[in-house]
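Dear colleague,

Following up on yesterday's call, I've attached the two folding results inline so they're easy to grep. Please treat them as preliminary; we haven't cross-checked anything against experimental data yet. The first protein's sequence and structure tokens come first.
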Amino acid sequence: MLVRRLIARLLDWLVVLVVAWPLVHEPVLVVLSAVAYDALLLRWNTLGKALTGLRVVGPASGLSLRRGLARTLVTTALPGAGALLVLTGLSWREPALMAGLGWQQPWVVIGEHLAVGSAGWLASLLLVGGLVLLVLSAVESLDLRGTRTWHDRKAGTAVVRFKVANSRG
């Protein structure tokens, strides 16, 4: 089940990246797009979950908006923020890397105007902070008990495998 969940998550991020990146060229907006995609489709199904045969289910009373948003913040916003911090730290250390991808690098421009000088310590801090968030996200998602990870237990949800009914006549 864990491998299916990981594949579904990667497919969902890929869908968002392929659609959002050419439109905005801004990692912050791509992460916000991923959060919106996940939150809006939580009651139905994301493309990644549909392709891997998974579905998020809530309690018998249904999946409330509050529970859905809490789950989305942990599953999408936490690793997204980690990735943004890593990219920001990398762009300060290697501006050509992100410029090649078309990122406008607003933090680098702000740093130049503020005369921060050598931002090596800040870039390192951002890189470490981003890596900590990514590791925390990975550890959190690996806490799988049956059909529920830590974020499922906190949100009152579970991810289950659904079977397509055979239409035999």
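Below is the second protein, in the same order (sequence, then structure):
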Amino acid sequence: MNAADHPAAATRSRGGSGAGKAGLGDDTRWDQNDAPQVASIPAPPARPPKPSPPGAVSASPASITSASAARRHVQSLVREHWNSPSAVVPQEAVIDLLLVVSELVTNAIRHGEGLAGFHATVTEEGVRLHVRDNSDVVPADAYGSGEIPPGHPARGYGWPLIIRLSREITIEPSPEGGKTISVLVPLT
């Protein structure tokens, strides 16, 4: 997943389809793609995320330094929020969510000059993610159609999957430098 310079912030709203789940394995497989851990994570962005609706669960722990830590954290938030017989989340939706978390955090570490912040908010619709990195470069594939490329392309599958599985994708410059990528992953 290479990046290209784009001077303006990017905004995209998609109706995620839930496609693209083939080949997903257990959590240990995802750890193979985790980059080396970052030493520390500064406080959340100076510009706070959009306000959450009443009853939403939100967290931004400083202990998120890898994709696997982010997945564990988001999975525990989902379990806490939907921990009743009347509120069940389909396993496929959780798999989609964890895939998006992995892609966003891994991209920040590998292509965004390091993970600078992570914030997850559980809402009635799903989970809103905010991933901040240290690079001003907006990924060229963030403007893509979400089609999975044929064969094994040089750019990879990450952004097409993020686009297909998420809604309300925004990329904004952070006041401290770098950028914040925000997405809503529906669970209902």
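For the second protein, one point worth flagging: Helices lie at 27-30, 67-81, 91-111, 158-165.

Best wishes,
A.L.
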